[in-house]
């Protein structure tokens, strides 16, 4: 590994840890009533404008779960390398989540039926901590010069571009959750 490669991987790891740290703070600071409340800016609120929307509201817990899930999925070198969280984790035990942990990934948190019981804060924090623990060894093992993202649904992305896309996705949803908290008078620190 060249000096530039080492600096790049160090920066990527720092940004993943910081983004996940901000997501953790959003989850921890979310008031109980906001955790499961319908999001007034959810696409489901505008379903007349978007007939393809599946009609499921996006409360705080679903947005956070979606963000952790995709950070986890896209952190690895490829779709085939994706592994579910440990079987002892609450998100792994739940039968309604089972399709999320194996190919063809036919389900993701936004697609769970509206009657799905919400994840509890400790369940998502456990999963977030697990994903955070994967960052250093996973990024260290990535071939950032690979011309392939490792995900067939991103055929034009290089690996480095896909890693940056993953960081943008993570931080985009952290911003979304931060805005929901700000509407409640709660500010989240920048890391």
Structural description of this entry:
- The protein is an all-alpha fold.
- The protein has helices spanning 3-29, 32-35, 60-75, 90-93, 121-141, 159-182.
- The protein has a single domain (3-38, 56-182), classed as Four Helix Bundle (Hemerythrin (Met), subunit A) (Up-down Bundle), CATH 1.20.120.
- Helix 1 (3-29) packs antiparallel against helix 5 and helix 1 runs parallel beside helix 6 (159-182).
How do the SSEs run, as a string of H and E?
Answer: HHHHHH
- Output the structural class: mainly alpha
Give me the number of helical elements: 6
Computed over alpha carbons, the radius of gyration is 17 Å
- Strand coverage percent: under 5%
Counted up, domains total 1
CATH topology: Four Helix Bundle (Hemerythrin (Met), subunit A)
Termini gap = 28 Å
Notable features of this structure?
191 residues, mainly alpha, Four Helix Bundle (Hemerythrin (Met), subunit A), 6 helices
Short note summarizing the structure:
With 191 residues, the chain is mostly helical.
Helices, strands, pairings?
Elements: H1 3-29, H2 32-35, H3 60-75, H4 90-93, H5 121-141, H6 159-182
Helix pairs in contact: 1-5, 1-6, 3-5, 3-6
């Amino acid at each position: 590994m060249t000096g530039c490669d080492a600096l790049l991987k160090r920066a990527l790891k720092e940004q993943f840890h910081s983004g996940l740290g901000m997501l953790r703070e959003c989850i921890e600071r979310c008031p109980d009533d906001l955790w499961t409340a319908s999001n007034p800016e959810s696409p489901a609120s505008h379903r007349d404008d978007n007939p393809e929307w599946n009609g499921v509201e996006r409360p705080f817990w679903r947005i956070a779960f979606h963000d952790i899930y995709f950070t986890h999925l896209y952190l690895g070198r490829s779709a085939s390398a994706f592994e579910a969280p440990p079987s002892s984790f609450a998100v792994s035990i739940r039968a309604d989540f089972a399709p999320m942990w194996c190919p063809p990934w036919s389900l993701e948190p936004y697609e769970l039926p509206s009657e799905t019981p919400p994840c509890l804060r400790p369940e998502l924090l456990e999963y977030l901590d697990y994903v955070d623990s994967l960052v250093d060894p996973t990024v260290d093992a990535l071939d950032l010069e690979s011309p392939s993202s490792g995900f067939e649904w991103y055929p034009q992305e290089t690996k480095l571009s896909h890693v940056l896309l993953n960081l943008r996705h993570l931080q985009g949803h952290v911003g979304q959750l931060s805005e929901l908290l700000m509407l409640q008078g709660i500010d989240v620190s920048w890391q």
